[in-house]
Backbone:
């Protein structure tokens, strides 16, 4: 595959041209896509990689001696190597392909925790979590009698660190915490939190669904035990994702699902499970999706994660300043450290009405509870309007957002 | 600038004066003591949630009704208009309204049924241009239908 060309420093803004979907009008106005936290758009490089794979290389992986099967396996395993590099995992054996963050977290709950946990054990999460990092633990608690503990957040939308640290006691079996909140954009200081957890012998799962699109991730520097993320939030295809797991932990875990590909030998008396990471990849995987995810990694690395983070940071500050200047705006989530996500309310207009009015001007935002109902409950609201920025957004988009919000004020005047 | 006048018209058609008025000051809002029928309406997509209280007398007439809950302007206005519409009506007639309104909004089918005067409810017609919002407008009506049929599950728009 041809390697993407490295970009120059000034060119993050030029990335927009790489995303064909953005070249369209909605309701007669050029699309402004501000919902990347829900699902990010794909650059042509990803779309083309998937199409090329489907046209030229597709077959099942790991099982045929024929040429296409070999090519498909190379493409799929090549994507694994790219993802290993992307998050700086020590070994490709630590990269388990899943259908997304949700499956990654469920895998840890059921395979790592369930066999080892019982009544009296505690699972620690925070009030900031997405439902995907709440419900799997509730299910586990029901199954095992373990108890779910929830660390509180403050009114800026940040985890209360002192409280969290105080809750990290001996009976905590695992800490599951999001790197970046999808509803509020809060970046939690997970490196420090993980360091304390290590001292106390508590394993840590990081829900990185919103981390990978915005921040350079180094799982070895973080020293986390599990890091879960989704392909579609990082400009890759839906139905793809990764569970990074520390090799020693993955090794000791039983399979999550049974089937083909995850075994070495099957007889009716006994089955020998395959080695890592295949033990956790039962059945034919999402091969083309993973190929696309690999292409998304190439794309992000060609732009540079640090450069993306810097660009988004600046644009986010601009967006927040512009929104703040609007009379009647209430910003929800004002953490000191934030990714480029801003939730807000306008006057007493329901977020759903705001969403419709903005959409009607070509501006796509997310409205509602963002699969984080406890966060909404903390603020005593049923939902918010949320604008999330990605590398393809620019100041014009922010201006269109504020114009559209002003229009909503007019409609409801 | 980027926006065509037509789009503004559609928005104004959706958020008509009457809709905004009912959304801001919903009629019969609150809990009804002595309710004989209740139903919850939930729109999982946007988190609209309302509860409908009905007092149906021995002659199967809706003596009184009310609703409470939270939602967008469309769902609250629609619930408020609903209470205005069916208060005092026999249950069968209220059901006929359910039928006419849900068809009108979801299928765009405009049927005249004798004895059914939907004049005021035409204020909801604007949602037909906004497919994502039709469910908001029909939520209260589904709750009414389910209350009258004593379904124990909350009505949803799914
Ligand atoms: C913080 C966070 N965790 C988990 C998820 C679930 O991801 P997926 O639906 O891709 O499994 C999301 C996606 O919305 C998210 O934002």
Residues:
């Amino acid at each position: 595959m041809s390697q993407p060309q490295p970009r120059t420093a000034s060119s993050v803004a030029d990335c927009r041209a790489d995303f064909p979907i953005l070249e369209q009008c909605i309701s007669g106005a050029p699309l402004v896509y501000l919902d990347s936290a829900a699902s990010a758009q794909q650059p042509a490089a990803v779309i083309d990689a998937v199409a090329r794979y489907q046209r030229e290389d597709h077959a099942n992986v790991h099982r045929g001696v024929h040429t296409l099967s070999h090519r498909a396996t190379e493409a799929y395993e090549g994507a694994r190597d790219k993802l290993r590099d992307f998050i700086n995992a020590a070994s490709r054996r630590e990269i388990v392909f899943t259908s997304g963050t949700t499956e990654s977290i469920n895998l840890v709950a059921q395979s790592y925790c369930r066999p080892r946990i019982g009544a009296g054990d505690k699972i620690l999460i925070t009030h900031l979590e997405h439902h995907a990092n709440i419900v799997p633990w509730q299910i586990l608690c029901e199954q095992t009698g373990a108890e779910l503990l929830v660390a509180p957040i403050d009114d800026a939308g940040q985890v209360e660190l002192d409280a969290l640290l105080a809750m990290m006691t001996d009976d905590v079996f695992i800490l599951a915490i999001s790197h970046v909140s999808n509803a509020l954009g809060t970046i939690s200081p997970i490196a420090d939190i993980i360091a304390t957890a290590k001292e106390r012998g508590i394993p840590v799962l990081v829900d990185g669904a919103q981390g990978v699109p915005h921040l350079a991730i180094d799982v070895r520097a973080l020293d986390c035990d599990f890091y879960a993320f989704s392909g579609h939030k990082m400009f890759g295809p839906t139905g793809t994702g990764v569970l990074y797991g520390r090799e020693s932990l993955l090794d000791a875990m039983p399979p999550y699902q049974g089937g083909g590909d995850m075994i070495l030998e099957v007889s009716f008396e006994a089955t020998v499970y395959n080695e890592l990471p295949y033990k956790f990849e039962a059945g034919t995987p999402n091969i083309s999706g993973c190929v696309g995810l690999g292409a998304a990694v190439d794309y992000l690395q060609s732009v540079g994660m640090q450069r993306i983070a810097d660009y988004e940071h600046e644009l986010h500050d601009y967006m927040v300043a512009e929104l703040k200047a609007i009379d009647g705006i209430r910003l929800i989530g004002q953490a000191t450290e934030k990714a480029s996500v801003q939730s807000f309310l306008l006057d007493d207009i329901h977020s759903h009405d705001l969403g419709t009015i903005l959409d009607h001007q070509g501006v796509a935002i997310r409205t509602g509870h963002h699969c984080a109902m406890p966060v909404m409950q903390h603020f005593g609201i049923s939902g918010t309007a949320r604008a999330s920025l990605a590398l393809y957004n620019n100041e014009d988009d922010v201006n269109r957002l504020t114009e559209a919000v002003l229009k909503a004020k007019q409609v409801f005047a | 600038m980027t926006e065509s006048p037509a789009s503004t018209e559609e928005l104004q058609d959706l958020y008509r004066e009457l809709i905004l008025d009912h959304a801001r000051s919903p009629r019969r809002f609150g809990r009804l003591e002595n309710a004989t029928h209740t139903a919850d309406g939930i729109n999982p997509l946007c988190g609209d949630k309302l509860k409908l209280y009905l007092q149906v007398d021995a002659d199967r007439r809706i003596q009184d009704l009310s609703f409470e809950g939270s939602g967008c302007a469309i769902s609250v206005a629609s619930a408020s208009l609903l209470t205005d519409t069916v208060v005092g009506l026999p249950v069968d007639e209220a059901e006929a309204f359910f039928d006419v309104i849900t068809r009108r909004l979801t299928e765009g089918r405009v049927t005249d049924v004798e004895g059914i005067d939907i004049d005021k409810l035409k204020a909801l017609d604007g949602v037909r241009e906004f497919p994502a919002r039709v469910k908001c407008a029909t939520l209260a009506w589904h709750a009414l239908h389910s209350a009258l049929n004593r379904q124990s599950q909350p009505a949803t728009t799914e």
